[in-house]
Amino acid sequence: MKRKALIAISSVVLLGLAFYGSSQARTIAPGLKVGVLISSSGPLYFAGGFQKAATELAKKDLAKIANLEISYQDPGDSEMETDNALKIFAKNKVDLILAPIDSAAVKRVLAAKELPDVPLIATSSVSENLSKEKKLLRLASTVSQDSFALAKYISKQDHENVAVVAAQDDYSKSVARSVSFALSLRSVRVKNHFFSQNQALRGIEAEALVLVSMEQSADLLAKLPNWLASFDRVYLVPGNLANYSSFSFAKELAGATGLLPAEEHSQSFRQRLASQMGRPEILSAPNSPMFGLAKRTYQALALAADQLSQSNDLSGLAKNDLFTAEGFFAKPRYSVVRYSTGGVYSVVGSFDPKIP
After folding, report:
1. Alpha-carbon gap, residue 233 to 257, rounded angstroms
2. Which residues pair with 345 in a beta bridge?
3. What's residue 65's pLDDT?
4. 3-state SS track over the chain
5. How far apart are alpha carbons 262 and 222 in whole angstroms?
6. Helix axis angle, 289-311 relative to 45-61, nearest 10°?
7. Comparing 92 with 264, which gets the higher pLDDT?
8. What is d(CA 253, CA 251) in angstroms, rounded to the nearest whole number?
9. 193-224: b (≥16 Cβ within 10 Å) or e
10. What is the pTM of this model?
11. ∠ CA(98), CA(301), CA(330), 5° rounding?
12. Distance CA 233, CA 338 (A)
């Protein structure tokens, strides 16, 4: 009797061990090797800390569905440095690469012979037309998308004619072309001017003004006091949405409107990020674009982990509905911002350009 009982107990134990072993095998997360290209020096070095912290948070949070193995490399400032970084990724057999955050570095990566044939995700807004041969998956809208969204927003305000006044740098020219073209498509009459024509600018007759520049706006408005008052509405592009509270013309901007890509990150995410970085002081600037960059870095890894759990590889990642067929971000949303008499802007609403 004792012998039969011992055999029965042993059988139960063995079955339990077998079940435990098989269940453990089923729950072991698949490996996901990721190469992250971040600047550890130069003018963009500060962004690297945010990206690393976001990556480490994702590694912890996603551990049950993907075992992330991370390799950080600096893309450098030359083709040779970029190639060296990509060679390391190739040696490590990475499954995914997160692109640098500046356009020049991304262009070098896309042109590099050493670039592994794996999905490449951009977590910042970088230039368009960087490569005809290789697709870049974008989690941030482009300048053209932002410009077309602003034009659509302006067209909904029922202006019959709009003046587009731009600086002479490449960014301003590109944005001015996009805004003007998009307004024209919506049957809005457009008058185009450049900053160099300071005297002529006072003679512009239009219901609304779109001021297209970067930091040059401050010099122009200082030279043309009370100029903005000649327009019913004033719109600014993302490049010149800044804090003008210390300038003499600050109160003239009251009511000026613009669109900024919506940054969707929660207070809890910001707090976790600050804790991971050991930098509680960053919480004093909750609207910092670095939080948006960090959240998109986290999102890129979450998307890849989810794809891996569904199909055991990343071949279908580009088909995610967050991306267009060309790899552009398919769901940009915007915050509507408006200036006060103090020369600072605040969020007053939201705008989705996909809504008719």
Report:
1. 8
2. 339
3. 94
4. CHHHHHHHHHHHHHHHHHHHHHHHHHHCCCEEEEEEECCCCCCCHHHHHHHHHHHHHHHHHCCCCCEEEEEEECCCCCHHHHHHHHHHHHHHCCCEEECCCCHHHHHHHHHCCCCCCCCEEECCCCCCCCCCCCCCEECCCCHHHHHHHHHHHHHCCCCCEEEEEECCCHHHHHHHHHHHHHHHHCCCEEEEEECCCHHHHCCCCCCEEEEECCCHHHHHHHHCCCHHHHCCEEEECHHHCCCCCCCCCHHHHCCCEEEEECCCCCHHHHHHHHHHHCCHHHHHCCCCHHHHHHHHHHHHHHHHHHHHHHHCCCCCHHHCCCECCCCCECCCCEEEEEECCCCCEEEEEEECCCCC
5. 30
6. 40
7. 92
8. 5
9. bbbeeeeebeebebbbbbbbbbebbbebbeeb
10. 0.85
11. 80
12. 11
Q: Which one-letter amino acid corresponds to residue 136?
A: L
* pLDDT of residue 16 exceeding 50: no
CB count, 10 Å around CB of 104? 13
Six-digit token pair at 134? 């290789």
Residue 130 to residue 170: CA distance in whole angstroms: 16
Token pair in block for residue 98: 């997160």
Q: At what angle do helices 143-155 and 170-185 cross, to 10 degrees?
A: 40
Render pLDDT for 235-250 as a digit per residue (tens, 0 to 9): 999 999 999 999 999 9
**CA–CA separation, 344 vs 250, rounded Å?**
8
